[in-house]
Amino acid sequence: MILRILGGFLMALADSVPGVSGGTVAFLLGIYDEFINSLNDIISKDGEKRKKALFFLIKLGSGWVVGMMAAALVIKAVFEAHIYAISSLFIGFVLMAIPLILKEEKESFKGHYGKIIYLLLGILLVVAVTYFSKHSFGGNISLQWGSMTPFAAAYIFVCAMCAISAMVLPGISGSTLLLVFGIYQAVMTAISEFIKLDFSYFVGLCIFGFGVLTGIFTIVKVLRNALQKHRPAVMYFIIGMMLGSFYAIIMGPESLKDNPQPAMTLSTFQPLFFVIGGVVIFGLQVLKDMFARCEYGDRDKL
Q1: Do the beta carbons of residue 244 and residue 127 sit within 8 Å?
Q2: Rg (CA), the chain
Q3: Average pLDDT over residues 14-30
Q4: Residue 301: predicted pLDDT
Q5: Model confidence pTM above 0.85
Q6: Are 144 and 197 contacting, i.e. CB atoms less than 8 angstroms apart?
Q7: From the CB of residue 123, how many other CB atoms can be counted at a distance below 10 Å?
Q8: Would you call 152 exposed, middle or buried from its count of C-beta atoms within 10 A (0-12, 13-18, 19+)?
Q9: What is the 3-state secondary structure (H, E, C) of the chain?
Q10: pLDDT class for 176, splitting at 50, 70, 90?
Q11: CB-side neighbour CA atoms (13 Å) of 104
Q12: Burial environment of residue 300 by CB neighbours within 10 A (0 to 12, 13 to 18, 19 or more)
C-alpha cells in the first residue's frame, strides 16, 4: 500500500514539471503494468477486476493528489528559481533509470534488435515536442470563470486529453505538452488558486479534468494491447523517449513561461544534483525490491 501511495506522490511531482514523465516513475517502481491494467479494468464488465482496479487507483490517486498540490504550491516556484539544479537532478534521474529498465526488461530487448527503429522514433518524438514547446499556441488562455470563451474551453479539453496521454507514457512529460499548447502556466495557476479556495477556477478545472479522463480511457486500451502484443517494440520506443528526454531537460530552461533562461551548458550543469538524482533512482529501486520481498513473504505465510 505504501509503495502505491508513494508512487502516486512521485508520479505527480514528475508530471507537474516539464522534462520527466510520471510514467517513468511508475515503471521504475514496478507498478507500470498494474497501473495501465487498472485504468483499463476500471471500466471492465468483470466486477472483481473492477473492484481490484478501484482499490489500486484510490491508493495511487491519493498520493498523486497530495503530490500535485505540493507541486502547485511549492515545486513550481523551486523549479523556476533553481532550474539548472532541477535539470541536473532530472539528468541523473533518467541516466540511472535507463539501465535499470534495460535490466528488468532484458527479455523484451534480447533478440529483438530489428525493433531499434522504434527507439529512433521515440527519440524523434520527444525532440520534436521539445522543439515546438518554444512556440506556444495557447496565448493568454485562462481557466478562470469569466475569462474563458467557448473556444478556450474546447481547447483546454483537447490539451488535457493530449497531456494525460503523454503522462501515461514513460519518457515524455505531459507538462511539456502543456507548454507546447501554451496552457502550462494557466493550469498550474488554476490548481494553486483553487487550493487557496478561489472557486472561480472550478469550472475550468472540471473541463480540464474531463479532458484528462477522456484521454486516459482513449490511450490506455491502445497502450495495454500494445504492451501485451508488441512489448519489444513498445519497450524500444519507451527507451527512445527516455533518451530523447535528455534533450528536453537540457532545453527546459528556455521553456520557462515567466523568466526563460538559456539552455543548460556544462558551466550551468550542477554535478551534486546530478548525483542526487541517480541516488534517488537507486533508492526507489531498493524500496521497490524491499516491498516486493515483504509482499512475497506475506504470501508465503498464507
Answers
A1: yes
A2: 19
A3: 71
A4: 45
A5: no
A6: no
A7: 21
A8: buried
A9: CHHHHHHHHHHHHHHHCCCCCHHHHHHHCCCHHHHHHHHHHCCCCCHHHHHHHHHHHHHHHHHHHHHHHHHHHHHHHHHHHCHHHHHHHHHHHHHHHHHHHHHHCHHHHCCCHHHHHHHHHHHHHHHHHHHHCCCCCCCCCCCCCCCCCHHHHHHHHHHHHHHHHHHHCCCCCHHHHHHHHCCHHHHHHHHHHHHCCCHHHHHHHHHHHHHHHHHHHHHHHHHHHHHHHCHHHHHHHHHHHHHHHHHHHHHHHHHCCCCCCCCCCCCCCCHHHHHHHHHHHHHHHHHHHHHHHHHHHHHHHC
A10: low
A11: 17
A12: exposed
Query: Are residues 240 and 118 in contact, defined by beta-carbon separation less than 8 angstroms?
Result: yes
* Structure confidence by residue, pLDDT tens digits, 105-117: 888 888 888 899 9
Summarize the confidence of residues 132-145 as an average pLDDT: 65
Q: What is the dihedral of CA 237, 32, 61, 188, to 10 degrees?
A: -20
pLDDT tens digits, residue range 230-284? 889 988 988 888 888 788 778 877 766 667 788 899 999 999 999 998 888 788 7
Cα–Cα–Cα angle for 241, 121, 227, nearest 5°?
70
Give 202-235 pLDDT, tens digit per residue: 998 999 999 988 887 777 777 778 878 888 998 8
What's the length of the chain? 302
- Residue indicated by cell numbers 541523473: 92
Spatial CB neighbours of 192, under 8 Å, sequence gap ≥ 6? 72, 73, 76
Q: Tell me the C-alpha distance between 106 and 88, whole Å.
A: 28
What confidence tier does 131 reach under pLDDT thresholds 50, 70, 90?
confident
